[in-house]
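User
New here, help please:
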Amino acid sequence: MSVRRGLSLLGLKVDMIVTLSLIFAISAFVFIYLLGPSLGLMGGIVAALGFNVFMWLISPYLIKAMYGLRPLSNEDDPWLYSTVETIAMRSGLKYMPKLYLAPIDVPNAFAFGSPIFGYGVAVTRGLLNTLSEEEIEAVLGHEIGHIKHGDMHVMMIATALPAIFLHIGRWIMWSSMFSSRDRDEGGAIYLVGIALMVIGWILYLLALRLSRLREFYADAHSAIIVERGADKLQRALVNIAKHSDPKLGAQLASAKALLIVDPTQASEVSEDVRAIMEREASLFERIMGIFSTHPRIEDRLRKLEELKRSIL
């Protein structure tokens, strides 16, 4: 690995660690110093956390049912199957992820899984019909990167914590309205609920930032593992965005955090990668980017360009 590439990836890793550490630090402070004395609230927190873990464990089965995923074998598509197998081996995985086809015409792909289900990579019919084999290879490198980095586990924890605070805060606010206590005490309890809601939203924004960083990291994995992966993935991202229709993309809205490109935010892009990279975002686009699970395509192309130069 070149020094420049190592420094680039190190900076990305440090950024992810700092963001995740902030989520843990804020959560730990609230749990220990604010909610710790209340056994009733702690019971609610444990119940909410248990529900999130349960949903995470069974989520692959729900995803399979929701999107009608069909397993693909070597006999169904020898090239696609062998490509996943090769990338998994290059990535150092001890197993090959299961391969699935989603009968959806929106070009996209996603990785999913849990300890009780195993791990899989799904490609849509639209992806196979729209992208070249080289571009599909780079997309698969990105998705297997998510599995290699354990992103499903990390993001489950990162998104469960804000969900717990939002749930508890909402419950406290509602319960304070119907409390038999005096108005001043009820008002104080209501403010505690608001504070927990605010903390939940802060943690949620940090989780979104972590999600965007992990997309960059999966892009970097594809750039390194796949031969000329940065070039191929740049073209793939442009083609996916170019051929995505936000109306059709709504079919995948509930799984957009898993996808390589958010299909509900697709915009008109040119086929010139260089022209897209040189485009500057408006203030509105930058603000909206804070609430997105994915980085803007311009930023992803620039990061891949930096990696490309470091690899050469």
The beta strands are 70-71, 98-102, 109-114, 118-124. The CA atoms of residues 72 and 289 lie 35 Å apart. The radius of gyration is 21 Å. The chain has twelve helices and four strands.
